[in-house]
Amino acid sequence: MWKTILRRFLIMIPEVIVLSILVFLLAKAMPGDPFTGSINPKADPAQIHHLMKINGLYDPWYQQYWNWVVHLFHGNLGNSYQYQEPVTRLIGGRAANTLWLALFTMILTYAFALPMGVYAGRHEGKLPDTIIRVYTYVTYCIPFFVILVIGIWIFGYVLGWFPTTGSISSDATGWLHTFGSRFYHILLPGLLGALFGTVNIVQYLRSEVIDSKHSDYVRTARSKGVPSKDIYRHHIFRNSLLPIAAFAGYSITGLLNGSIFTETVFSYPGMGLLFVNSISYRDYTVITALVLIYGILNLIGTLLSDIILSIVDPRIRIQ
Amino acid sequence: MSLIEIKDLKVHYPIRSGFWNRITDSVRAVDGVSFNIEAGETYGLVGESGSGKSTTGKSVVGLEKVTSGSIMYKGLDITKAENRRKLDYNHDVQMIFQDSLSSLNPRKRIEDIIAEPLRNFEHLSKDDEKLRVLQLLNIVGLDADALYKYPHQFSGGQRQRIGVARAVATNPKLIIADEPVSALDLSVQAQVLNFMKKIQREFGISYLFISHDLGVVRHMCNNIAIMNRGRLVEIGTRDDIYNHPLHIYTKRLLAAIPETDVNSREAHRASRLAVEQVYQDQQSKYYDDNGAAYPLVQVTPTHAVALPQTIAQQLASQEGEVQA
Amino acid sequence: MAENFEQHSDISAADLARLTQEAQAEATPSTAKIIWSEFKADKPAMAALIIIVGFILFVMIGALFINTPKMMETNIMGYFNQPFTADFWLGADSAGRSVAKQLIVGSRNSIGIAIGLTVISSTFGICWGLISGYFNGYIDWGMQRIYDFMMMLPMTMMIIVLVTIIPHYNSVTLTFIFSIFYWEGTSRLIRSRTLAESEKDYVAASKASGTSHWKIIFREIMPNISSLIIVDCTLSFAENIGVETGLSYLGFGLPSQTPSLGTMIANANDPNNITQYWWTWLPAALEIIILCLSISYVGQVLRRAADSSQRQGSVN
Fold first, then answer.
1. Could you say which of C28, C200, C206 has the minimum Cβ distance to residue B116?
2. CA distance B31 to chain A (A)
3. Residue B181, Cα to own-chain centre: how many angstroms?
4. Which domains does chain C have, with CATH numbers?
5. CATH superfamily of A89-266
6. What is the pLDDT of residues C51-82, one digit of tens each?
7. Transmembrane ranges (chain C) (predicted)?
8. Tell me, which fold does domain B40-67+82-228 have in CATH?
9. A-chain residues within 8 Å CB-CB of C249?
10. Opening angle at CA B20, ends B18 and B22, nearest 5
């Protein structure tokens, strides 16, 4: 078990290294240089030349990469020229918003998907099952950003039930009020994300329930006279719980990718919106840092899922 | 000179374990097997499932990656891929598979299935090729309207005949028949076996006949090798194996042949139990300390058994055989 | 040898031709036939198919009659023209450009990119999955590591970064950039099926018949997973419509002078537009929804046709 986890970690290391090289090279390939905008445009070319030189920008790329990695390990990701503050602090402020929204969406997703999956499996082939299947199918095939736009239009603007911008109202005071306001702001994006992200869990749970319904151990339990409510609770549901939990890791990846859209539509100040803004302002230090962070979060997400799955199913333990 | 000479053939599959996933051990599917097949004969390879007989067969066709040892054909070692290419090896050595359904591509028509080796090795014109396929269908007793059908439209016995037709298409010297009839009904088994024999007589093909069924093997084979745990335990002519078995494993296999004579049911059962008793008691005598079979020793010019020299001679004299 | 065969042949050329015809008439129905009868049996599926094909043909042909640069010129007279009028029957946007015309050209662009993306990424994914699944061992291991790495990349971000790096891009370069990141799903699906398929004896039989690896992969194995490929391509097509439109919506897809369904929906980013001038973005959003639902529905029917136990149509 521990061996599997440790080995999985070791596989991660080269992936992170390749990712960081890729990100670094992409940053190098972006037009402009890190001083664009931060110094007087009328500055003497010789002076720029001097600045480039003392900052090591004429070194070969691997040396620059090495310097960058060393800085990275000191928690120094450079300065954002758009906001004129260290990238670490800038992202630190936004990361909490993004993760908070992602976590909330995930909890809601599970809250919707678990009962739907079990119910659909239990009533396989009947009307509720058909309705749930059509529902998951419809939610699955519509592009998510279209849902967000239509959602904010109907519930945010036309009905006016939810705030349409920001993560907290400006007049919030006191911790209870602050918390309430924050919660209010993530409610609509969270609900939309959850209602339209159930498909994987529902489908998995449904087929799992149908499979175990016809398995020998459930038949045995049934023939012993165990009430069917208990069969579902104790035998079927519990068995499929861990693999379902493993989806959490993968869904982090999906939610992070989606956060770029969610945060843009809701003008929600998280990492996704920061990324979109930084691209518009060509704020390269921020862009590089964000791509790296998202990549590592993706990696941790899949790692988490793989580990949970390897606990559940020894067949898929990595060789 | 024999048609094909298999010498000390070994096929090992690595077992990886430990933190660094290094090869710590290996499954010895085939562990030092040697025998020769003569032109025009049917050579039987018998053993229980997992004894490595199918792996041996696949190695001879070139489908398995061989760990060590050699398979000599026309003076070249065909365990090397370049030698197989040089000889057009599979033009001369073909295979019949156990599962007739899985061995025929469900998306291809019978014509294309049978013509596949022809297209790769003989490059005939379109009309010649079609005629050849029709002739082959005729040989295995199928009608010409089979040409455009798909495999699932045939019964198991018919499919196996299509498999045979494909195998003989290039007029090969040797066909590996890997349990060709064990998936078929008894009545169909006899049919397929008989026309396999017919084809052999007409074209002079050799078979390596792999089976677990000693009854079928007796019907088909002149020379027989018994395989157990990746090694050969006994080699001999049909008479040697059926009438003078020396190794306990061979005796067990023979005892397991179902007997149709109802009257002597009790006697048969008693002899079966006796053999089983010997097997349980004398395992250490027949297998070495690792549970593997001993190297083969010759007891007569045709008969060899995997036992230490002294025991082999002792058993042979009990059986009344003449010492070589 | 030849004489040997002659003994067994008593068939004339005329017989041969007759048998050929007879047998062809009796042969099993092709995949295309099965699918077609499935559609004939399922009316909603037929409707969805007609909607898709008809709509794609309509925008492809319609866009030919629209002068795009002229359409994209600012027209003060049409400033936020109401919909359902004689001049602008779906209204006009802030620059007075006809929404209906933009919709047609935008659909053409978006659907075109989605088709291109599906063709490129599916072809690549299918080849990747087939090769990886067929040649087990080190080749598969290496290809799997690359796959893992690609899965880790934050796709949307990488595409946006690449788009900003490349100085001049058009719909073709854009399609290629998307394709770099959208082959993984297909490849994983195809690989797992290929692994199972390679174990079957007919592959061994082909090897023993001297058929080359490439021929086995593409002529023996691929036809056997063709139904899976058709279903997967259809479903990825539906997904791929969301890829380009989503990025264009963010402003990183097609350039602003090239209309796309995504850039039209981006009109909704302005709080005024979204409620007051709803006609600038809502038609595009509804179109995407209907298109994606129809395509996926067709995909579901194809999946059913591929699984013989669930078929509704009967084939003779």
1. C206
2. 26
3. 12
4. 34-310 (1.10.3720.10)
5. MetI-like (1.10.3720.10)
6. 899 989 988 888 888 777 776 777 666 666 66
7. 45-66, 111-135, 155-183, 278-302
8. Rossmann fold (3.40.50)
9. 145, 149, 261
10. 75
